[in-house]
Amino acid sequence: MAQGRYWSLLTFCLFASLRMQAQFMDYGSDPARFRWNIVKLPHYDLVYPQGNDSMAYRYALYLENAYPHVQKTIGKPMKAKFPVVLHPGNMVSNGMVSWAPRRMELLTTPSSDLGMQPWDKHLVLHESRHIFQTGKVMSGLFKPLYYLIGEQAAGVASFFLPTWFLEGDAVSTETALSNGGRGRLPEFNMVYRAQLLGSDKVYSFDKWQLGSYKDYTGTYYALGYNMTSYARQRYGADIWDKTTSRYTHNLLFAGSFKRFTGSGISQLYNDTFDYLKKEWTKLDSAAVSPTYLSPDTKNYTSYQHLQILNDSTLIAIKSSLKEINSLVTVRNGKEQRLSYIGNINSGLNLSNGCIYWTEYTPGMRWTHENYSVLKRYDMTNGRITTLTPRQRYLAPAINDKGSVVAVSRPQVNGVNELVLLKLMNGREIASFRVPNNGFIKELTFAQGDTVIAVVVDDNGISLLELKTGNGAWRKLLSTASANITSPMWNNGKLYFESGANGTNNIYCLNLADSRVYRVTQARFGAFEPTFSLKGNRLLYADYQAKGYRIASLEGEQLLHEETDLDNPTPTPFVHTLAAQEGYNLDKAQLDSVPFDPKPYHKGLHTFKVHSWAPFYYNVADAIRGDADDLMTLVKPGAMILSQNTLNTATMQAGWYYSKGHHHGKLAFTYQGWFPVLDLSVDYGAKAVDVSWVKNDKDKEVPKGHYTDRNLLEAEARIYLPFNLTRNDRIRGIQPALTYSFTNNRYQQIASRTHRNFQYLLPELRVYNYQRMAHRDLLPRSGYQLRLQYLNSPFNTENFGSLYAARLTTYWPGFIRNQGLMVRLGYQYQALDGKALYLPTQLLEATRGYGYLYQTHQQWAVKGDYAFSICSPDVNLGALIYIRRLRANLFYDYTQNQAGKQGGWTNQSSAGIDLTFDWNVLRMSYPLTTGVRLTQPIDYGNFQAEMLFSVSF
Fold this sequence. Notes:
Blueprint: H1 2-19, E1 36-40, E2 44-49, H2 53-70, E3 82-87, E4 94-98, E5 103-107, H3 119-137, H4 145-149, H5 152-157, H6 163-176, H7 190-198, H8 205-210, H9 220-235, H10 239-250, H11 253-261, H12 265-282, E6 291-292, E7 301-308, E8 313-320, E9 326-331, E10 334-340, E11 343-344, E12 349-351, E13 354-361, E14 371-378, E15 383-386, E16 394-398, E17 404-410, E18 416-422, E19 428-433, E20 439-445, E21 450-457, E22 460-467, E23 472-479, E24 485-490, E25 493-498, E26 505-510, E27 515-518, E28 526-531, E29 537-544, E30 547-554, E31 561-563, H13 574-581, E32 598-600, E33 609-617, H14 619-624, H15 630-633, E34 634-643, E35 649-658, E36 661-670, E37 676-694, E38 700-719, E39 722-723, E40 729-747, E41 754-770, E42 782-790, E43 802-812, E44 819-829, E45 857-870, E46 874-876, E47 880-897, E48 904-920, E49 927-936, E50 943-950
Parallel strand pairs: 2-3, 3-5, 37-40
Antiparallel strand pairs: 1-2, 1-32, 4-5, 6-30, 7-8, 8-9, 9-10, 11-13, 12-13, 13-14, 14-15, 16-17, 17-18, 18-19, 20-21, 21-22, 22-23, 24-25, 25-26, 26-27, 27-31, 28-29, 29-30, 33-34, 34-35, 35-36, 36-37, 37-38, 38-40, 39-40, 40-41, 41-42, 42-43, 43-44, 44-45, 45-47, 46-47, 47-48, 48-49, 49-50
Helix pairs in contact: 2-3, 3-6, 6-9, 6-13, 9-12, 10-11
């Protein structure tokens, strides 16, 4: 009986994880022009673009040297080699480990938010831990499951492992095994510290973990780091090794933890933050109270990247839960928005009436080829201009004359440079290689032609000075123990931000004697220093529980406390974690690794079977949630799944049994070329012949009957997904061509020959809408336009052509974060000399009615008004957490003309969608569940239907 319950639960986990898309992640592809190498390492197969041998060797070196140490406190090394793919063309800094197919993908461009550790070491330690976590749970009950369903088994095995544990444990690892890691940065825990000590609001564990639409709750990375590290400190280094070992035999993560500690997860949360509150209270000495210049907001709102326009006006980036990022001016405590902006990745620079920054922009086609470009906002005309399209520039700094901008350029091949550009037009003047190929994460100009750079390399973090006139570099300061950010030059001194005293504060480097002094005493964090135009006031971003505020200190309020950056105040848990591991990747003598790259031919690696099953389900339906329930999703049969290492080709092939018929099924997608190709074939059931016969009135009418032929349905679609997103607008154009074939045969009205039904569908989709804020339900402005033309070229005697145009527009609601969506549609079917209506549809049916296939012309208007009712942030134990209740009022109106000479008929309906956004069993994937109530107006009965979706 117990065994039966386990297998039932395993089956549920498999399909639930499919619906959550974690199994088959499409992480995007690289440009088709890339050629690839592969290196067979002892524990990994490293795949990388040709021309990146030096970068690839560093990753190979760190992967293999860290391997025996990453497993120490989690156990169970993996038995098979793990594929690792490097994506150096992507400017976004990230990494991921996927279950099915097994692979690690690393975006190698260093992060500007980096601490004092090189990006490649950080990625290796963090993502390697994920490999061992997944490998660890593939034992016990789950070990035989691999032989049944392949690599999908890892998704089942990890289903009840909470995300806070997976990510928190990985952050603990990156911190324990190096000089860096996010656990050593005070700002990593600043949100929790400010909330515990600076606010009277008490948040539950579920709210911190699962998020909120009402309050800012940080990330589960920090939450997980605190809880996993506290558990290791209190219960021993092997607590998570023991917990996960027991989990593989009972599927109860919380119960397994309690077995060894006597404490549940909620109690662990309480104990962790009781301990942290005591530790942080020790640092909560009397802060120097600044004058706040930004508005005192009711909700969480941040003002960052401060620039000074004049004595009374400041410029900053504003962000909040209810608005996307925007440029604002602040004058006398009141703000005025200048413009919305895009995905900014630098501070602001003000020069000659213009504001400059760098911003991520996607490539037109490839996920892993994007850019970081220099932007300019002209305050005279309010226009945003891209000065350097298709470039890889970060950390801009402008000289005093306003003629030259210095930027950091991490190249695709891993070479790091400092580049000088003409500010007027963005043209390159000169470039300089960085000593030791360190990564420049921030820049500032000093006097004359001198540039000062914050550089991260294998020795830690440094302040380097470059004389651009002769290309000479000089080290001003270096440390391996404390982070340095936001440098700025003022009156012969260099100011910057660091967390050296356990709290982020502003520091000053006196170049005359190389001494460092702390000048602020912030309670939770002081960032991004700048000085007033007269130089008598320090302005900075001061973090509080409700966000970053613009703060000001008079000169006489500044401290002058000498600081040793090599002996920073340790953050909680760090010493314990490091002692438990006993290994430091930054200090260890690394053993060389065999490195013999060979060409990796994409064509020979198009297919890679990773999973299979003794039943059938459509992966696309599972991810989209198209099936109504498990019974319609899963069918008797068998299947295999393939997804290659470079993510250019995916395939599903199988057999299934449905409604008394056997089917063969094949689905294939290839995105390694500039156009994307989709193919699908279904062979089974019985085909239909439709013939013309005379009825009792001696009139010819079509009549269909099943034949002995097996039904063949095939579709090929080719499309170009052009991504034109810029600034605050999500934009793109997607032309597509679909060819559909079935061997259902229709007798032609004139020639009397039977022909297979097939059609061509060229279409064009154009979209342009504003990015959505966290609380938005719909975009505040924009549109989507779709034009389609359906033609059956081999059935012209029976069928005419079908034309359709659909326009979706978005409008702001009466209250912020509410939204109005208006959809217009028109469809025309050419019927002159044609005998039948096309058996396909292009417009959507009116809600509450069936689709009208008999149509010559059709107009449709649909309106939706979406609004939030409340955000309760309440939980029912560990079972349910409800974040939001929302509603959508709708009205549909359709006019249809069935024949050219016929009259018009109406279909109209009104109704409401009532939905909850919630989480179940403390899993991080949000669910949306509710009911749609529809009242048809012209005919039909009141209807109620359930709504369900999963967000990723």
